[in-house]
TrEMBL record:
It comes from Candidatus Doudnabacteria bacterium RIFCSPHIGHO2_12_FULL_48_16. The lineage of its organism: Bacteria, Candidatus Doudnaibacteriota. One of its GO terms (cellular component) is proton-transporting ATP synthase complex. NCBIfam families: ATP_synt_b (TIGR01144). It is found in: Cell membrane; Endomembrane system. The keyword Zinc-finger does not apply. This is ATP synthase subunit b. Its main location: membrane. Keywords: ATP synthesis, Cell membrane, CF(0), Hydrogen ion transport, Ion transport, Membrane, Transmembrane, Transmembrane helix, Transport. CDD domains: ATP-synt_Fo_b (cd06503). One of its GO terms (molecular function) is proton-transporting ATP synthase activity, rotational mechanism. It holds the Pfam family ATP-synt_B.
């Protein structure tokens, strides 16, 4: 009875209190079973997804760094190869240029030699023709002189005429 008196002093009805306690227990059980547990499970799943996302982000950062390093190495390799190809091409072009210059100089020398030979040949031919013409003129002049050698005055006229024809 002391309990009753203690509860009674506080103004509580123990039957009502017991019924409220059972109702509170049922509500707490329902709240725990259908609200707290699913909410806790959802929060745990969300936390796991966030942690997995962070791990994936870290992994992606590592992969990105590895890819950037690989890309830099490949770019360096490609630049080196391009420089080598450029140098090779430049060397080949310079060699072709030098060969072309040497060939052009050889051809120019050959053309010059041919021109000199042609000029020498023409000069010889002209001298030969000039000698033949002079010889023909001398023969003609001699023939005229011999035909016209009757007097010294006539002789002088023939010489002057021959000299005019030569010029």
């Amino acid at each position: 009875m002391e309990q009753q008196s203690l509860l009674g002093t506080l103004g509580l009805d123990w039957k009502l209190f017991l019924a409220q306690l059972v109702n509170f227990g049922i509500v707490l059980f329902i709240f725990w079973k259908w609200v707290v547990k699913p909410l806790g499970a959802t929060l745990i799943k969300r936390q796991e997804r966030i942690e997995q996302g962070l791990k994936n982000a870290d992994r992606m950062d590592d992969e990105k760094k590895k890819f950037d390093e690989w890309k830099q190495a490949e770019m360096k390799k490609v630049r080196t190869e391009a420089d080598h190809v450029l140098r090779t091409t430049t060397d080949t072009a310079n060699q072709i240029k030098q060969d072309t210059i040497v060939d052009a100089q050889k051809q120019a020398a050959k053309v010059t030699e041919q021109a000199k030979a042609s000029m020498e040949s023409e000069k010889s031919q002209m001298l030969k023709e000039a000698k033949q013409e002079i010889a023909t003129l001398v023969v003609a002049a001699t023939e005229k002189i011999l035909r016209g050698k009757l007097d010294p005055k006539k002789d002088q006229e023939l010489i002057a005429e021959s000299v005019r024809n030569i010029k």
